[in-house]
């Protein structure tokens, strides 16, 4: 210590030649690597830490928070460790001389002289603490660090590297571990403990009974120094001394665990990964998932997805209810796994039927036994209702009516509509069959929620995303706004579970074959959500129904939104909201193509119904507010629909003048026999 003091004094106060040699000696210092590896952090949309990962060797070390560290903690740290930190050049010569004199007069080391810069040098090199050669090396590195980095960068390195016991380094990891909070706001007692621990992290760990007395004594000495320096007043010091020490190490946050795992794999080495997740809603969704599986059969899990369908931001994503339970498939993200959607695809079949002008919510349809080739579908309860409306068929989730409509539309057109809505279905065979509409395909919960977001947005698709991004330009509408509203209107009339208020959420439940999957998906004017329950390995859960298992969780999730919920929108102006008796004749009763005519002479088959103008996929220049459209064939009268809404009926000629506006539109014509033709076009120009 004395030799170090003499050497530093001679170098600092010698002549020009000595100072030049001194400068060269410092400038020639080979610094240790200055990049300090930190664990990846996955952050919520407001910067809240969702999940942290240790660095490669299992060490918990995190970057200091972007919002900074509590200023009072920094004042306590500097006041305790290095009061002249802002004025010395890396080595405090006065402190060295004082320590040397005390060592001579007392015959032992009474106080240290290491500055924060020297301590940072030691932490960077993982060097020894007591050897004079190590001290000299630390002094040289500290001087070089001051010249090359400056005070703030040195302090940042110290805040990352300071040891806090066990496998924890850095003030941020320590604050989360000991207090479960970020270090931007610390109490005086918390700040004092975090100042005291790095001096002897293992002998002052407050979670070890044999070390608690030493931890308290060291903390209180820091409090006394802070009081002396005027950093805190006497009242705050008294409160701090009376504060109990933490008695355990807290686990680091692990919210959105499976999402965080995936994002870290997709972004290797990224120190911070921002997401669109809402921290409060994520925590609420995780609690709901855990509560939903409590008391259920063994290995039953749950998955939840909540998004803002206006922006596409995913706000909560729970891939499993038991992340730590590998026996229950806790490692499988069930928001992305392919499972049977049960009856949750039925609304899309009806939406396409509305859009094509084949049906209306009040159209009558038969719920009677029927065969489709060799397939004879049954209703879930093995009962048939006879003649029902489309509205009743969807509300009661009847199978025969939706298969009849699907047959009229054709599986290929249905699959195209599913894709436009954002759902990528996985088929068992090469070609889709009618069984797809009853759950005979695989789809992920994420895709299913994206499809319902399309319905919620009036038929306009949106790409759901969990990372902040620029919104993608909307693609072609999957359905017209009238058809999407009609589906939402029907779904909002389904009675919610457990006596809750109806009309607030448009939702549909689904149960896959053999009770393997229980689903509920729904939306209001702003949010869309989906809930899955079942076993990740696909084994049945006897008695599991979407309405009993998943629907209550879905409504609990919407309740958690509180005042942020938005009512469902009113009907578009073009929506036809009338009873069956007032509907255009072709829409009063569903009559699919190929239905057998009454007995008698076979009538002459009419020319097939087609739309001649505008051609399918055409871009049409508008020269006036009206567009002249033309069909050919079929049997009059002709019922014209624009984006699913009736706009004109022509008794004889298949020509009509329709109102038109710029953008994508779907045009449908239906003749007296229920035959239809449909084209999509884009109108440009005009006013």
Automatic annotation (TrEMBL):
It comes from Paracoccus salipaludis. GO terms for cellular component: outer membrane-bounded periplasmic space. The keyword Protease applies. It catalyses: [GlcNAc-(1->4)-Mur2Ac(oyl-L-Ala-gamma-D-Glu-L-Lys-D-Ala-D-Ala)](n)-di-trans,octa-cis-undecaprenyl diphosphate + beta-D-GlcNAc-(1->4)-Mur2Ac(oyl-L-Ala-gamma-D-Glu-L-Lys-D-Ala-D-Ala)-di-trans,octa-cis-undecaprenyl diphosphate = [GlcNAc-(1->4)-Mur2Ac(oyl-L-Ala-gamma-D-Glu-L-Lys-D-Ala-D-Ala)](n+1)-di-trans,octa-cis-undecaprenyl diphosphate + di-trans,octa-cis-undecaprenyl diphosphate + H(+). Residues 61-223 form the Glycosyl transferase family domain. In the C-terminal section; belongs to the transpeptidase family. In the N-terminal section; belongs to the glycosyltransferase 51 family. Gene3D superfamilies: Biosynthetic peptidoglycan transglycosylase-like, DD-peptidase/beta-lactamase superfamily. GO terms for molecular function: carboxypeptidase activity; penicillin binding; peptidoglycan glycosyltransferase activity. Its EC number is 2.4.99.28. This is peptidoglycan glycosyltransferase. Residues 602-681 form the Penicillin-binding C-terminal domain. Pathway: Cell wall biogenesis; peptidoglycan biosynthesis. Keywords: Carboxypeptidase, Glycosyltransferase, Hydrolase, Multifunctional enzyme, Protease, Transferase. One of its GO terms (biological process) is peptidoglycan biosynthetic process. It is an enzyme of class 2 (transferase). The keyword Protease applies. Residues 303-512 form the Penicillin-binding protein transpeptidase domain.
């Amino acid at each position: 210590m004395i030799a170090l003091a003499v050497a530093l004094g001679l170098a600092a106060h010698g002549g020009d030649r000595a100072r030049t040699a001194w400068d060269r000696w410092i400038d020639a210092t080979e610094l240790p690597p200055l990049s300090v590896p930190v664990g990846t952090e996955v952050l919520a949309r407001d910067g809240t830490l969702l999940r942290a990962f240790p660095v490669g060797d299992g060490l918990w070390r995190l970057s200091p928070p972007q919002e900074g560290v509590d200023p009072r903690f920094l004042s306590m740290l500097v006041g305790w460790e290095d009061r002249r930190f802002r004025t010395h050049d890396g080595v405090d010569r006065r402190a060295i001389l004082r320590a040397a004199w005390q060592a001579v007069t007392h015959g032992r080391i009474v106080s240290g002289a290491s500055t924060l810069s020297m301590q940072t040098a030691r932490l960077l090199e993982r060097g020894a603490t007591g050897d004079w050669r190590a001290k000299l090396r630390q002094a040289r590195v500290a001087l070089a660090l001051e010249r090359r980095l400056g005070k703030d960068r040195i302090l940042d390195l110290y805040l990352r590297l300071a040891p806090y016991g066990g496998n924890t380094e850095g003030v941020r990891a320590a604050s989360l571990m000991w207090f479960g909070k970020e270090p931007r706001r610390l109490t005086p007692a918390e700040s004092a403990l975090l100042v005291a621990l790095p001096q002897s992290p293992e002998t002052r760990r407050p979670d070890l009974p044999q070390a608690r007395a030493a931890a308290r004594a060291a903390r209180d000495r820091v409090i006394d120094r802070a009081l002396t320096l005027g950093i805190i007043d006497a009242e705050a010091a008294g409160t701090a001394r009376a504060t109990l020490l933490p008695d355990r190490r807290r686990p680091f946050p692990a919210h959105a665990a499976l999402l965080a795992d995936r994002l870290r794999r997709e972004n290797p080495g990224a120190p911070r990964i921002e997401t669109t997740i809402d921290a409060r809603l994520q925590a609420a969704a995780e609690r709901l998932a855990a509560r939903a599986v409590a008391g259920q059969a063994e290995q039953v899990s749950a998955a939840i997805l909540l998004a803002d369908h206006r922006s596409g931001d995913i706000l909560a994503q729970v891939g499993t209810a038991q992340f730590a339970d590998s026996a229950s498939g806790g490692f499988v993200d069930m928001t992305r796994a392919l499972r049977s959607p049960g009856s949750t695809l039925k609304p899309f079949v009806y939406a396409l039927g509305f859009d094509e002008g084949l049906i209306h919510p009040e159209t009558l349809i038969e719920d009677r036994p029927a065969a489709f080739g060799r397939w004879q579908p049954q209703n879930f309860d093995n009962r048939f209702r006879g003649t029902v409306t489309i509205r009743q068929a969807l509300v009661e989730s009847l199978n025969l009516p939706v298969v009849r409509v699907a047959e009229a539309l054709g599986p290929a057109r249905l699959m195209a509509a599913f894709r436009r809505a954002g759902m990528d279905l996985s088929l068992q065979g090469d070609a889709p069959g009618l069984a797809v509409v009853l759950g005979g395909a695989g789809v992920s919960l994420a895709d299913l929620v994206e499809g319902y977001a399309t319905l919620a947005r009036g038929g306009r698709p949106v790409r759901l995303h969990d990372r902040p991004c620029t919104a993608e330009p909307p693609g072609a509408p999957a359905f017209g706004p009238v058809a999407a509203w009609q589906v939402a209107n029907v779904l909002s009339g389904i009675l919610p579970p457990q006596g809750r208020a109806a009309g607030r959420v448009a939702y549909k439940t689904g149960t896959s074959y053999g009770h393997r999957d229980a689903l509920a998906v729904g939306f209001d004017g702003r949010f869309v959500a989906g809930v899955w329950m079942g076993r990740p390995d696909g084994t049945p859960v006897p008695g599991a129904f979407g309405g009993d298992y998943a629907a209550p969780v879905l409504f609990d999730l919407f309740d958690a939104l509180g005042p942020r919920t938005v009512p469902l929108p009113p009907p578009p102006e073009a929506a036809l909201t009338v009873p069956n008796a007032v509907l255009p004749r072709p829409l009063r009763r569903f009559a699919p193509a190929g239905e057998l005519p009454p007995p008698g002479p076979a009538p002459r088959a009419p020319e097939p119904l087609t739309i001649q103008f505008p051609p399918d996929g055409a871009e049409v220049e508008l020269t006036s507010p009206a567009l002249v459209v033309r069909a050919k064939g079929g049997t009059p009268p002709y019922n014209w629909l624009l984006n699913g809404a009736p706009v004109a009926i022509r008794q004889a000629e298949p020509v009509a003048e329709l109102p038109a506006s710029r953008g994508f539109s779907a045009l449908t014509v239906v003749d007296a026999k229920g035959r239809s033709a449909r084209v999509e076009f884009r109108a440009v120009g005009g006013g």
